[in-house]
Amino acid sequence: MTRSSSIILFCVLGLVVSLILTAWLTPGGQELRLTLVKEKKPVLVLPLKPGERFTIHYYHSVENAPIWEEHSMDETGKIYIEEERYEKFGAGMGKMPGVGRMVKRGIYEAITDMHMPTGDFILRVGSPGVDHTIIWRDQRYNLSDTMAHKAVKFSGKSRSMLYLIWRSLKGTPQLYK
């Protein structure tokens, strides 16, 4: 190998290492991770931009009425509940004093402007018919179809640009079975 080709090779390798380090150190955004509590196995991983919303939609187990819970995540990965929407009050539903404001949206009641921190939380997934479904960027992931009666932990995490690039190479998010 000649001296000039060694210099070129050294420069190219230095550039590649610099790009990898830059991508590793550059914030890339957040991800929402759903993990089976008992098995400690991820079931769904969704990239989120700060403030971007995802929805948990289901049917109340007693009233059999539809409910939507909109959540967001901040730049540190902390999860907030932003809005609840339902057709009628069911057990465990309704306004909490000092949180959000009640509005009417057609036939639905909504509590908006909540921005109440939940942090990581656990959802016990209901049976088919309850249809616990995650709605994100117009995609739907029905948890009740694949993991009914299991506890699923929702957690947020900030990720590097390099990690998000690597995750994007795996394709669009899907439920793991």
What does this structure look like?
This protein is α+β, with helices and mostly antiparallel strands and 177 residues long. It has one domain (3-168). The protein contains 3 helices and 12 strands. The protein has helices at 3-25, 143-147, 161-168, and strands at 27-36, 41-48, 53-59, 66-73, 79-86, 101-105, 108-112, 116-117, 121-124, 133-136, 139-142, 151-160. Strands 3, 4, 5, 6, 7, 8, 10 and 11 form an 8-stranded antiparallel beta sheet that branches. Strands 2-1-12-9 form a 4-stranded antiparallel beta sheet. Strand 6 (101-105) and strand 7 form a beta hairpin. The protein is elongated and about 80 Å long.
Unreliable runs = none
Oligomer, anyone? single chain
Q: Write down the domain tally.
A: 1
**Protein structure class:** alpha+beta
* Contiguous helical run count: 3
State the separation between the terminal residues, measured CA to CA: 51 Å
> What is the 3D shape?
elongated
Which value, in Å, is the CA radius of gyration? 21 Å
DSSP strand (E) fraction?
35-45%
Helix-strand string: HEEEEEEEEEEEHEH
Largest sheet: 8 strands, antiparallel
Mean pLDDT: 84
Number of β-strand runs: 12
Share of helical residues: 10-25%
Topology:
Blueprint: H1 3-25, E1 27-36, E2 41-48, E3 53-59, E4 66-73, E5 79-86, E6 101-105, E7 108-112, E8 116-117, E9 121-124, E10 133-136, E11 139-142, H2 143-147, E12 151-160, H3 161-168
Antiparallel strand pairs: 1-2, 1-12, 3-4, 3-10, 4-5, 5-7, 5-8, 6-7, 9-12, 10-11
What can be said about this structure in brief?
With 177 residues, the protein is an alpha+beta fold.
